[in-house]
Amino acid sequence: MRCPTTRACFVSIRSFSSSNLLPALAGHEPNDLLNEVRLLSSRGQLHQALSLFYNSSPQLHSLQTYATLFHECARHGYLQQGLRLHHFMLAHFPSCTSDLFVTNHLINMYSKCGYLQYAHQLFDAMPKRNVVSWTALVSGYAQCGRGVESFRLFSDMLAERDCRPNDFAFTSVLSSCDYLCGKQLHALVLKMGLGASVYVTNSLITMYSKGYKVKEAWTLFKSLSCWSQVSWNSMIAGFQLAKLGMHAIGVFVKMHHEGIGFNRATLLSVFSSLCGSNGIDINLGLKFCFQVYCLSVKTGFISEVEVATAFMKAYSELGGDVSEFYHLFLETSCQDIIFWTSMITALAEPDPAKAFFLYRQLLQEGLTPDLYTFSIVLKACAGFVTEQHALAIHSQVIKAGFEDETVLRNALIHAYARCGSIALSKKVFEEMGCRDLVSWNSMLKAYGLHGKAKEALQLFPQMDLKPDTATFVALLSACSHSGMVEEGLRIFDSMFKDHSIIPQLDHYACMVDILGRAGRIVEAEELIRRMPMEPDSVVWSALLGSCRKHGETQLAKTAVSKLKQMEPENSLGYVQMSNIYSSGGRFNEAGTIRKEMDGSGVRKEPGLSWIEVGNQVHEFASGGRHHPQREAICIKLQGLIGQLKEIGYVPEISLALHDIEEEHKQEQLFHHSEKMALVFAVMNEGKLHGGGNVIRIMKNIRICIDCHNFMKLASGFLQKEIIVRDSNRFHHFKDNICSCNDYW
């Protein structure tokens, strides 16, 4: 770990002139140096404090001075400066190594800087430890996300005589532990009489909220005799995590009426509570969103990019017109690169085209994109059908001198993979001189997305960094897409055994998907029952998809019931159950489900496909509705269907969702949006990127079996590679074969 400011620090130390301070210290006591060091540090002038220290007489160096400087290095995260100071101390003041006070500060510094191995070595070598020694190391592991080690160390601390954990020790270990460990710690808190501590209670509220036990968090919140800002923030964030947006808003309103000041963290949670499936009435949500926006303008928090981005994301998801908040921001004073980047960030995922348009407008305004702007624009590029936009931004990144920035190379890996070019993702990854954990995770995820699980599993052992939870989500997803059940089980079991990582909801969802897709639905159901936390909608959706594939009607009903409770406005449960009944010929039951769905006001997301021809993106709905060339496309499609039937294409009429004549069932299938997009591409072959040898189609839902079979045969008949990106993965069709090997 090399601190990016190391070189600047040493230049500063060498060039700093301490001639105006050293004479004043001549003939004085060690306390004089200590006071000067403390004064400089309090002013944020740590480099000058270090320079003064190194240029002073060793006779003036005291334990307190070393401790003060180690504390400041820890506070600022200056690992290299701390290492140099430590080596200096060993050379000039070796007796310090046995001092409890100084060693505690050293452990704290190395822990805060993430240098846990060295911190633990110092800890193990201590002849005597106190509660500060233990707490510093417990806190270090917790801050690095290593909850298992933190909890284990805390447990060892309890076995020590005369070493009673304090408030800070509890808050540290609670910040990274899971629900089961947290419950044990809560019991210990009550036993030790720390239940009245507002700091410990705040940590317990956060722990329960992260474990989706918001009722227990709310009970704790109400039990407090006085609430700090952290208490309110923890509870608002808890309701937001539980997707109880109205409750989060209610707590914020009460907090404001109580006269409690809010901060950046409060606003981020409140705006996030207005997003997604949080049960917010649209009109009420928009009104409240605007009111919180006014408060953030009044307090100046709106000038912070994260707050501005959170507002715009909430406002757009609630249906607010982009042009409206564009004008709102024009009226504020933050019309700089941060403002523009915020605007682009809010639109990068929901509307990549508008985000890219704003980026071009930013350039026209004469503003210079920074590293963060480029990373967000590349995120928007990931939403396009082809890699043309990502290539254009890549060239601008090089021109701006940001080519070697790890953050941007990571964004490029992601963008190229999402646009269908795994080859470009791999090229960027292999050319990286320095890779961080995101780099490895991005490449693993890219392989999984394109059905290259073997490549992902071969890359994993080459990692020179400790994997995290996201690493295993990528690996398990790759196994799921490729049907590698035994490999998935082995990886899942190794998480805790070999890497001390506790599986979370995402990992269980992957495992349910792996087992369920392979037909091992009983094992998938059993895994859900054994989960140490409540299954979320993703877990139940994975099980429902498996039931749909293998015709498990009874278990599907259970999954649908759970989904309706968790996300009553989501159409997935209704649609999948209707499909299951229709596939089994039970059209009356399917009709009942559709009527129930209509009666609940739930609307199914329409199947859409997009294709880029020239510089224009064309959208297709089923049947080609609204497209100006619909008639010509349908005629061309009928001809292609006839040709493919001659070489073996048989429509999967069992997928038709109504009890109608076979001829009409075929007609339903023939006009699926991806088929319309394919034919339109063939009609405009000369305008396709790359000369038309590769046809790229993007769709918003999973490709059906019939369209999958159709694309396989079409790829061979047309002698073209057809790449379809659906909501779940990429399918590369070439020479009558799909990269998924018909497993998806």
UniProtKB/TrEMBL annotation:
The keyword Repeat applies. It comes from the Eukaryota. InterPro entries: DYW_dom (IPR032867), E_motif (IPR046848), PPR_At4g14850-like_plant (IPR046960), PPR_rpt (IPR002885), TPR-like_helical_dom_sf (IPR011990). PPR repeats lie at residues 130-165, 436-466, 468-503. Signal peptide: none annotated. Residues 648-744 form the DYW domain. The keyword Signal does not apply. Keywords: Repeat. Gene3D superfamilies: Tetratricopeptide repeat domain (1.25.40.10). GO terms for molecular function: RNA binding; zinc ion binding. One of its GO terms (biological process) is RNA modification. PANTHER family: PENTACOTRIPEPTIDE-REPEAT REGION OF PRORP DOMAIN-CONTAINING PROTEIN, PENTATRICOPEPTIDE REPEAT-CONTAINING PROTEIN. Belongs to the PPR family. PCMP-H subfamily. This is DYW domain-containing protein.
